[in-house]
Predict the 3D structure of the following.
Amino acid sequence: MGLQPYLILSAVIFCIGLFGVTTRRNTIGILLGIELMMNAVNINLVAFARYTANAAGMVFTVFTICITVTEAALGLAIVILLFRVRRTVMADHLDLLKG
Amino acid sequence: MIEQLTFAALSIVLVGSALAVVLSKNLFHAVLWLALALTGTAGVFLMLDAEFLAAVQLLLYAGGIITIVVFAIVVTERLVGERITQTNMRIGGGALVAAVMLGFIVNVLRKSLLPATRPEMPGDLTRVLGQAVLTRYVLPFELLAVLMLVGMLGAIYFARPED
Amino acid sequence: MMANSGTLALTAWLLPAFSFLVLAIVFPLRRLGRPAAWFSVLCAAGAFASAVMAWRIQSVAAHPVHLVWPWLPSGGKTIADVGVLVDAQSTIMLCLVSLVALLVQFYSLGYLHDEPAPAFGRYYAYQSLFAFSMMGLALAPNLLQLFMCWELVGLCSYLLIGFWYQRPSAARAAVKAFWITKAGDVGMLVGIVMLFRAAGTFDITELHSLAATNALPLAGLSIITFCLYLGAMGKSAQFPFHVWLPDAMEGPTPVSALIHAATMVTAGVYLLVRTDFLFALTPNVLLVVAWIGAFTALLAAVLACVQDDIKRVLAYSTVSQLGYMMTAIGAGVASAGFLHLLTHGLFKALLFLGAGAIIHAVGSNDLPNMGGLARRMPQTATVFIVGTLSLAGIPIFGGYVSKEEILGAVWGAHLTGPFLLLMLVAGLTAFYMFRVVFLAFFGAPAPAAQVTHAHAAHASHAHGVHATTAGTAARVAHTDLHNETVVEGAHVNETPHAHEPPATMLLPLWVLAIGTMAVGVYTTFGGRVLLDPAGAPTAEGAPGWLTPSAVGVAAAGILLAWATYQTRTINPVTLANAFGPIRAAALRKFWIDDVFEGLYGIVLLGFSRIVGWIDRYLVDGVLNVLSDWTVQAGDELRGIQTGKPQDYVYGIGAGVLVLILLMRLVF
């Protein structure tokens, strides 16, 4: 079928994830967007690995999946901690860096 | 033929659920839609003859991540004590950015030479994967283990009860 | 080895410069006072010796000597040199300047001996600078160096008039002098530049040869010479720029003798003498020069008749005599004007220094406070009368021949109007000078209560319109009941304490008196060569009745003064009232000063106010608006930093896309 459709699919998912990251108000919603982006990357990697007969792509995918899981866990831990301190998870309210 | 149909169906499922993730008003629903999206991704992996990865995806992502996200929502929901509603902000700008980015990537893809047929698989992919991880990529593998340990410790530390 | 007249002139010029530099830089020496003074006097003496030697060599030399160094390069060649042009005129002028400078510096040792040491040293530094500048002007080979030294001379005048700068009247007078001469200087600079454009050179000798060979374009030359004359008007106090000279009497009397009698004010005359070949090509400008000169002479003579301050009488007298010199130049006989410059330099300096002796003794400038001084100060009286007779133009005395020559030149040029004015002025000059003599030296001494004895040298005081109005109320001098003296640190004595001045002051007086007599005798009996090798005596051109009538007019003036102030046959008050309206106007200085003040206030200050408004509201306004906009823009742009990382991600995404788009479209 060709590589191109997979790549386009991955691009679409990536951009939807990007949309979610920049748009969602809830921090957890942002994390969901990040998950989507990671997924898109994985699809990309695996597709390339399959179509160039290089297993390295899949190995890399395994690694990224593991790292993503770690990052998601930590991210959510931070969200919980943030909630404890600031009593909110809305990204609008987290503006201590405001200039 | 079958391949194309399967791919089309999977894409619809994926894209649809992804859109639902980012546009859903209820956060809990969004999480559930994410679960569907992750499952769809596992289907794509299967189409690409990466069975091991599909299994890993289902286990870790659809199983693990969704679980902890649900836990996080529950934890933060209860203390807030109100219905979790959410809206999006800056939809126009975000959509524009995403659309232009998509257009650009697709443009590049269209112009580039990509392989059109799948080469032959050198045997069982899982076996190849396993061998590669434990021979050629053993160092990143081990470091990954360390990283995950650190991550776990960090997460536990973050989420510790206040005392 | 016979030294070159050029190097001698250069030595004479640079010795005062050396003195000034030493006194300016080595300030411990300057602060010591008297050692600095002696150093300056020694340099001045050396300068005078060199000047005399240079003159002696040059007076028999055939050609002028150019000793110059290239100075201003432009476009590959030098457009101006710096150095000395040594010819007959410049060496004589050099001698006059160095002699009077030396005598004045020597005289100041006595006159200013009460000054605190740092001020004393400063005074001598300024004197050295002035001597250097004036000699540089006299020796200038080109108009550019002349202009530079011209400006320096103006600066020294400012510094020396305002020597007692703590006195507001002195400071004002110094600024006034500077302003008014500066107005003329601007014109002069314009003239010099235009001349350069027309002739291509600044050098005086080259200009002379260009003029002689008719190589100068005549179109626009009148404007050029008029502009040069403007500078001379400012420096030489021609109407209406004469107003600074009487006020300049705020400075110490030796300064008045040096700068405002013998040297600086004659710079304008000297300039016209140096460039007379240019003016000869523009007779209409010469006509203007003559008329203004004659009018100035008359105006100043009238003003001198009503002054009660002895220095002011002498100041107006100087203005009047400068008018004489200018009229002679306007008549086309610059040599007559130059001769009068020389003789006038000698006897006017003598008169001023004599007046200084009187002021030093009496403690006041006012004529009503003087009287019968001849008995107590016989030597001063003698030299002063010698100077007065020279000024009046009596035969044998210094100014006689030069005055006759001027009158002859004016008559010969058929300038009837100026001639009549000058004759009238001759009479007036004799009158007012002998008024001073009779009031100061003869008659009864002033009553005791009004005479204050002040050894302090700060004996000159603000004597504006106030004093003259008060003085006229008591027009009869010796029963003056108003004491207008404002002397610092003076003690009122019971008895008048006038006495001869010390030797340091008497010696220059005698030198000048002998010099004036020598010049007078020499010129009366036909000698001219030493003073003016190039000029031909105009005695052959003058009509026979000229000399007797001129002397007669002067004698009539003396007689009138004697009758009014000595024997009191004519009541001074009656005489004064006979000229009622003229006198009243003269006491207001014919409102010329008021016109200047009005112009200054309206035009200059008004213009300043407008410019100030523009600066505050337009220029500053624009800047303030811009800065406000900047601050506002900053405030608005600060809103971009929302502090939410999500926004930053969005920004990064958008930024990357813009970059990509730019790359796609542009490159």
The two ends of chain B are 62 Å apart (CA to CA). The longest helix of chain B spans residues 51-80. Residues 2-110 of chain B form a domain with the Four Helix Bundle (Hemerythrin (Met), subunit A) fold (CATH 1.20.120.1200).
